[in-house]
């Protein structure tokens, strides 16, 4: 099958596996989502949600984050990795939102990436989930799955992976595909212990086939031993 057919097959399979895939970061508005995604860098969504449960009660607007010393905000998010840098970026972000955008989070992708701590991935998550603009955010799960399934090359950069997915996936499916690839990578095609024996896409996964060879060899050797013992 060609690249388009292969992609269509992959999307159908992961769509059947995770039809309800969604953003797992708890938030009630675009501003909270931006803060949550910023905090999620090198941190699990589960930990972020535990922290933001209290954080979003205490801080409801950009002004709230600027009303306290940075040291206090650091303590509020200290369970998050790189909490000092993230606290500094949050306050810088809030200052820019107030000074340059009238206190309202900008909706444009380019404007979002100007905010401290907000890179391309974060902006993609925000525009797609908060503002309904199709986008594919490439996090560690999306990158890993895309490369394992041959949708991208093993040495492709994150940006190259994103561009290839945008070409292969119909635009109206970008956001759903982003969520489903994340769920597939987070709950099935894990970094350390992927569920290769149960994977319906194993025939497309070069790494999965390599992982399965030792198991296949062990099974074959076991059969040989049984046959030899009977002989």
UniProtKB/TrEMBL annotation:
Residues 39-187 form the HhH-GPD domain. GO terms for molecular function: class I DNA-(apurinic or apyrimidinic site) endonuclease activity. [4Fe-4S] cluster binds at residues 189, 196, 199, 205. Keywords: 4Fe-4S, DNA damage, DNA repair, DNA-binding, Endonuclease, Glycosidase, Hydrolase, Iron, Iron-sulfur, Lyase, Metal-binding, Nuclease. Coiled coil: none annotated. It is an enzyme of class 4 (lyase). Its cofactor is [4Fe-4S] cluster. InterPro entries: DNA_glycosylase, Endonuclease-III-like_CS2, Endonuclease3_FeS-loop_motif, HhH-GPD_domain, HhH_base_excis_C, HhH_motif, Nth. Binds 1 [4Fe-4S] cluster. It catalyses: 2'-deoxyribonucleotide-(2'-deoxyribose 5'-phosphate)-2'-deoxyribonucleotide-DNA = a 3'-end 2'-deoxyribonucleotide-(2,3-dehydro-2,3-deoxyribose 5'-phosphate)-DNA + a 5'-end 5'-phospho-2'-deoxyribonucleoside-DNA + H(+). Its EC number is 4.2.99.18. DNA repair enzyme that has both DNA N-glycosylase activity and AP-lyase activity. The DNA N-glycosylase activity releases various damaged pyrimidines from DNA by cleaving the N-glycosidic bond, leaving an AP (apurinic/apyrimidinic) site. The AP-lyase activity cleaves the phosphodiester bond 3' to the AP site by a beta-elimination, leaving a 3'-terminal unsaturated sugar and a product with a terminal 5'-phosphate. Belongs to the Nth/MutY family. NCBIfam families: nth. This is Endonuclease III.
């Amino acid at each position: 099958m060609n690249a388009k057919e292969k992609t269509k097959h992959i999307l159908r399979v992961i769509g059947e596996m995770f039809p309800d895939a969604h953003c797992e970061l708890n938030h009630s508005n675009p501003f909270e989502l931006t803060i949550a995604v910023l905090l999620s860098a090198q941190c699990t969504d589960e930990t972020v949600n535990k922290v933001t449960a209290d954080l979003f009660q205490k801080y409801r607007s950009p002004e709230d984050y600027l009303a306290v010393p940075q040291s206090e905000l650091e303590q509020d998010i200290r369970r998050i990795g790189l909490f000092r840098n993230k606290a500094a970026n949050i306050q810088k972000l809030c200052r820019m939102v107030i000074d340059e955008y009238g206190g309202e989070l900008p909706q444009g992708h380019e404007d979002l990436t100007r905010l401290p701590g907000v890179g391309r991935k974060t902006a993609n998550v925000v525009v797609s989930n908060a503002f309904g603009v199709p986008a594919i955010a490439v996090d560690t799960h999306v990158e890993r799955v895309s490369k394992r399934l041959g949708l991208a090359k093993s040495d492709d950069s994150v940006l190259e992976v994103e561009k290839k997915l945008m070409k292969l996936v119909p635009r109206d499916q970008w956001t759903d595909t982003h969520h489903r690839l994340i769920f597939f990578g987070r709950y099935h095609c894990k970094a350390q212990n992927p569920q290769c024996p149960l994977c319906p896409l194993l025939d497309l996964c070069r790494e999965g086939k390599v992982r399965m060879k030792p198991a296949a060899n062990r099974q074959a050797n076991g059969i040989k031993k049984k046959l030899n013992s009977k002989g």
